[in-house]
């Protein structure tokens, strides 16, 4: 009975209190850490596709890449690269603006980022329509479409996140104190940009 009473007394003492505060081992918000971990897993996914590309090149021992008879629009891809890299700067401008409570700069930077992302996707689709070979033609075509298509899918996901952030920004949801909803898709967008630079160099240049 004594032990039973002590249990009830203990429960009654803490019943109206909140659980103890969680002590985090990092100063970074959990949402940002979660996005960074997700990006790490995505980087490994891209790594598998890059490994497949290099494996195909080694196995085929092709003296020229792309193989004879195939032409990649390097100039168009380079212009697309400039567009996407520039979008990283406008994304940074947007985030830096809201950190200073400059909503106009935030909206302008984010809108430009979205427009450049749409331009990138549109140019990539146009390239596919004119490139002259299909994914199932051979190993080279499969790896080309696999890597550029995988990246294009990530760009589309990033665009959807940025559009959602833009709608929230237009509704006044962000401020200097509360802007994780913009910062998190911005981190993802920077990852997409960096990954395209690697894809461009690996697929179109090397």
Notable characteristics:
206 residues; mainly alpha; Four Helix Bundle (Hemerythrin (Met), subunit A); 6 helices; 76% helix
CATH topology: Four Helix Bundle (Hemerythrin (Met), subunit A)
What coarse outline follows from CA principal-axis ratios?
elongated
| Class by alpha and beta content | mainly alpha
Order of helices and strands: HHHHHH
User: Spans of 5+ residues with little confidence (pLDDT < 50)?
Assistant: 5-15
Q: How many distinct helices?
A: 6
- Main pleated sheet: none
Spatial separation of the terminal alpha carbons: 79 Å
Question: What is the CATH architecture assignment?
Answer: Up-down Bundle
| Average pLDDT | 85
Helix coverage percent of residues? Answer: over 70%
The value of Rg in angstroms is 24 Å
Give the tally of β-strands.
0
Indicate the proportion of strand residues.
under 5%
What would you give as the CATH superfamily?
A: Cytochrome c oxidase, subunit III, four-helix bundle
In CATH's first tier, which class applies? Mainly Alpha
Concise structural overview:
The chain has 206 residues and is mainly α. It contains six helices and no strands.
Describe this structure as you would to a colleague:
- The chain is mostly helical.
- It has a single domain (27-205), classed as Cytochrome c oxidase, subunit III, four-helix bundle (Four Helix Bundle (Hemerythrin (Met), subunit A)), CATH 1.20.120.80.
- Helix content is 76%, strand content 0%.
- The chain contains six helices and no strands.
- Helix 2 packs antiparallel against helix 5.
- 21% of the residues are buried.
- Residues 5-15 have low confidence and may be disordered.
